[in-house]
Amino acid sequence: MLGRPFLALGLLLCGLSAVEFVFAALDATVSDENWQGFLMSAVMSGLIGSGLVSAFWSAAQDRRFDLRSGFILTALSWTVFPLMASLPFFLSDLDISLTDAVFETISGVTTTGSTILTDLDHLDPMLLLWRSVLQWIGGVGIILMAILMMPFLRIGGMQLFQLESSSKESTLHTRPATLIRDIAALYVMLTLLCAAAYALAGMSAFDAINHALTTLSTGGYSTHDASLGYFGDARVYWVAIIFMIAGALPFMAYLKTFSGEARAFFHDPQTPLFIAFLAAVSFTGALFLPEDAGPNSFTRVALHVVSVTTTTGFAAEDYQYWGAGFVGLFFALTFVGGCAGSTSGAVKIYRFQLLALYATAHLRRLHSPSIVQTQTYGGVTLDRDIGLSVLAFLSLFVGAFSLGGLALTLTGLDLVTALSASATALCNVGPGLGEIIGPAGNFTTMSDTAKWMLTGLMLLGRLELFALLVLFDPYFWR
Amino acid sequence: MLGRPFLALGLLLCGLSAVEFVFAALDATVSDENWQGFLMSAVMSGLIGSGLVSAFWSAAQDRRFDLRSGFILTALSWTVFPLMASLPFFLSDLDISLTDAVFETISGVTTTGSTILTDLDHLDPMLLLWRSVLQWIGGVGIILMAILMMPFLRIGGMQLFQLESSSKESTLHTRPATLIRDIAALYVMLTLLCAAAYALAGMSAFDAINHALTTLSTGGYSTHDASLGYFGDARVYWVAIIFMIAGALPFMAYLKTFSGEARAFFHDPQTPLFIAFLAAVSFTGALFLPEDAGPNSFTRVALHVVSVTTTTGFAAEDYQYWGAGFVGLFFALTFVGGCAGSTSGAVKIYRFQLLALYATAHLRRLHSPSIVQTQTYGGVTLDRDIGLSVLAFLSLFVGAFSLGGLALTLTGLDLVTALSASATALCNVGPGLGEIIGPAGNFTTMSDTAKWMLTGLMLLGRLELFALLVLFDPYFWR
Lengths: 478, 478
Fold this sequence. Notes:
The structure is a homodimer. By secondary structure, the first copy, chain A, is mainly α. Helix content of chain A is about 65%, strand content about 0%. Chain A is built from 21 helices and two strands. In chain A, helix 5 packs across helix 6 (about 125-155) and helix 5 runs parallel beside helix 20. Chains A and B meet through helix 3, helix 15, helix 16, helix 17 and helix 18 of A and helix 3, helix 15, helix 16, helix 17 and helix 18 of B.
């Protein structure tokens, strides 16, 4: 049961080691500040990784890959990998605690984007790039997991997106290895496009690369304390808007489009609603922006609406000063999320659509029990198993958010900070509300207890709760 | 379809008219302030009520009582009845708007207890008694609905509590008419006991009667602006604690106890957990009360924990000053509620138990799909229908709370006020958080828009969402 997961983890750590070696070499060349930390991290990741690979090499012969191995691989790669990847922070000249290093790394790979680092503008550029790369790796990691693993594990209704069922109406027939290659190529291509667009919009090459890495992954780490506000340029904002949306769309639809299915995005039930929702909310919001908003009010509202809804978390200004309604709006948007099979977190569009379908069907069955109802979503017939999966997900999601918020108030945080911190971590968004962790704030002043709670919530949200919770069922280990 | 519901509504309004006549007579004798308002209300209720009864008298012959009639009767009696019952406020010397009169009445009959009235200590005593009686009527109304109607309508998992299934292991076999008589007698008896206990604890006869009416109904209206804090007496607090719990226990268990099933409360899966939860939270809370708390710290914490959890809403002091953790705690407790088949609102204990059971079963099925699981709750075998009912309820409950909170921020309220107002209305608790509607606050300064939203949320919560939402399904009316 454990062989193949440990082998896969070993390979992941070897890959991490290789990247860290590159960073050590680059740092020695560019800034000469933290190459020792990167080098030590590379050696440690390499040792553990190659040790695991050699110890479990025989498992590669084992063709069986059962459910439990899937869950264990998922949990291992999203905990051990970030723990190892936090070493470059911990061993750097930042002089931060292990708690802070782990918080920053988990916030990175889960593409949350909450940060405990301040004075980003004067940080070793290689550390900034490391943060961006962590988000970028986490982004492609979650896409692959959402497409290949989650439907197999039947997490939170993701069985709807099984490749067999979705390929029925599609021209796409492909093996996992081909799919991984295609997704990775697409992800790289979109990132390069985004970087080029940022550069054209006026960013320096370094800023363009970093922000491209964190835009497409809907992560939201920036190279400046002022985030995108540093640039104050509508062109930059629009590049961000377009590529945050690009990262929050279902990646299978891109592949289908390239393989000739021209209207793939329209066939997906999520995309049209998602785009319409963003446009409607941004447009309505712009109408209510205070008078001193200036000519770019639609751009500014759209930037932040898209940033929070796609769970990216870039900010160009503190939208809490726009009025009470906007505070409520952004709190609500925190929970929305993008499409399934993208880099974005939170509840996601399809679950709202399924909730509406099941709730309507349930209402109808209440007053007319004999009615026969058959419902489909994206060509798949909905059964009670999918309904239970989605509704159980929603109930536990809210439960995790509530318990997280309650626990955070017990550490002494006010209600708005605690609830928004719990929400922003669980939904992998980034900024919260209130003075401490608002869009202009920072998580550095939080207690270590609170930081560990938030780290747990980020992982719980990123792994759609159930992929992590199964491990706590004693029966799992029998 | 409409005959029997309108007949029943007519009878209810005739009953209301009779009570209002008594109030007119009493007011003319006691305070001579508002007897005209009571009299006019009595005449109007009487006219409409007797009109409905004579128009639909023939429907009494119709023995069929189908699902739709049940939903229509439920909705009619919880909207038209309170609208008519708000007239004594509107026609009184209080000089309040229709919005305020309806808010106060709906808050009363739903046993919420949020108030827009100030200077209660100098109000016409008959108006104070009218408020208390509204809560008391609403309390027994919801018990009867929860026992006789909700299981039949299969709302939110209430089908678990169908009389046939619960009577299997019970000595209780009874017709609805007998049951109504027994529940009413029990309710009156408990109220009298409570009033006697309050009087013994030092309350005046008038205060004892009013508070007994609003304690047992877990309503929370008081005759003083300072609520129970006016008395500042631990004996009063303990009477309140005991009878708020009494009102939040499953009323069927009382009847079973009286009919000889000595351990009925222990056989009910909710009661032991509910009591243990209240004790554990109160005890833990008392440990963390600030140092200036004085000797009665356990009493003071228990009073407010029980008050909020049972959805009563009495307050003796502003617990928001106890610290950030308490603010989070009381916000969370708002959602808990008491047992099914009681006067309390909110999510209720059995739904948390069912969520835990279904979530565990779901987790187990994720990693071991071939496992055969049979689960029971209180002797009833759980099926997927009950699971879908409960989970759909929980998801929509959270949806209603969130949309309510968002809509309230759009009226200009800060996030804490908006979220806690939405929660306290939907859960029928009473006080919210923040300076405006906190335990020491009042809803009078809210905008009319906000008041109507809250009125809607109170009804939605009291009718367990689905009993109201079915009416908005176009298919319902075919």
